[in-house]
Design the sequence.
C-alpha cells in the first residue's frame, strides 16, 4: 500500500517502524497554521490499513517538537481564530481535535521523541502517544492559561491519562514550563536521553516493539486502550476473545517453536 502524500511532515519506514517528522521548523512545527493536522491524520489512517508498520514514532524536525498553536494568529484573529463562537468551535472540531481522535484509533504503539519545545498542543500531541522520551533541555508546558484559553485540543483529557488528575491540574492551572529532567520526575516522559542520541535511542525502543508478532502487538494495543474504558467483567470477555485470535495465529506457533528450539523467531504477521 502506497504511503500517504504529506505536505508539512516527512514519513520514513524502516524495520516496521514509521518515523513521522514534523517538518515546519520555520514556525516551530505549530499545529494550527500548517498542514500537520492533515499529515498526522493521514499517516494514522495509512498505518491502520497497511500490514507493513508495527510502531509509529513522532518527532520534530529542527529546534522544536511542536510549539502548538500560533499566538500571533490568535492575536490577529486569523487562520481559524476569527469568527463567532459557533465558527470557532467548528474550526476546533474540524481542525486540531482530529489529532486526538486519530491517535486514539491508531492500532500500533506510538512513541514521541521530544527533541525540543513541546508547548500547549505540542505537549498534548506527545501525551496522546503511548510512550514519551525527551532531551534534558526540552522545554514543555500545558501553557494555555498563560494566553487566556483552555486546552481546546483535548489536553485536559490526555494529560490526566499520563500523570493523574492532581498533577495535571497543577500543570494546567499554573501553565508553568518545565524541562525534560522534571518531566521525567513528573512522569510526563519515561526517560531522558542526550540530544545527539535521542532519535536513535527512541528508534531502538520502537524496533524492539516492532520485532514482536505484528498481530499480537496490535491486539495488545487494542487491549490496553479498552482497559481504560471498560468494566472488569466486560474487559475479561474482551481478553478472552483477543486471546482466541492470538492462539490461532501462525506467529504464535512460531514463537513457541523458537522458544523451545532456542532460536530467534521469524514472524510473518499471520
Sequence:
Amino acid at each position: 500500500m502506497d504511503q500517504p502524500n504529506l505536505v508539512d511532515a516527512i514519513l520514513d519506514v524502516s524495520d516496521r517502524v514509521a518515523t513521522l517528522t514534523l517538518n515546519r521548523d520555520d514556525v516551530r512545527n505549530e499545529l494550527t497554521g500548517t498542514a500537520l493536522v492533515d499529515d498526522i491524520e493521514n499517516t494514522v489512517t495509512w498505518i491502520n490499513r497497511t500490514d507493513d508498520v508495527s510502531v509509529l514514532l513522532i518527532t520534530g524536525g529542527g529546534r522544536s517538537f511542536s510549539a502548538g498553536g500560533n499566538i500571533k494568529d490568535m492575536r490577529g484573529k486569523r487562520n481559524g481564530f476569527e469568527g463567532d463562537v459557533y465558527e470557532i468551535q467548528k474550526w476546533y472540531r474540524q481542525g486540531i481535535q482530529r489529532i486526538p481522535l486519530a491517535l486514539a484509533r491508531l492500532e500500533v504503539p506510538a512513541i514521541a521523541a521530544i527533541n525540543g519545545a513541546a508547548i500547549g498542543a505540542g505537549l498534548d500531541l506527545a501525551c496522546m502517544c503511548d510512550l514519551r522520551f525527551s532531551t534534558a533541555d526540552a522545554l514543555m508546558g500545558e501553557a494555555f492559561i498563560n494566553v487566556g484559553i483552555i486546552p481546546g485540543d483535548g489536553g485536559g483529557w490526555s494529560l490526566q491519562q499520563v500523570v493523574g488528575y492532581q498533577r495535571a491540574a497543577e500543570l494546567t492551572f499554573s501553565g508553568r514550563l518545565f524541562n525534560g529532567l522534571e518531566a521525567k520526575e513528573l512522569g510526563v516522559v519515561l526517560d531522558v536521553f542526550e540530544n545527539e542520541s535521542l532519535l536513535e535511542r527512541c528508534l531502538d525502543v520502537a524496533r524492539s516493539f516492532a520485532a514482536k508478532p505484528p498481530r499480537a502487538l496490535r491486539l495488545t494495543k487494542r487491549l490496553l486502550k479498552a482497559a481504560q474504558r471498560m468494566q472488569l467483567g466486560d474487559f475479561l470477555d474482551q481478553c478472552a476473545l483477543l486471546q482466541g485470535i492470538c492462539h490461532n495465529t501462525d506467529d504464535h506457533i512460531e514463537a513457541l517453536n523458537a522458544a523451545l528450539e532456542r532460536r530467534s523467531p521469524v514472524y510473518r504477521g499471520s
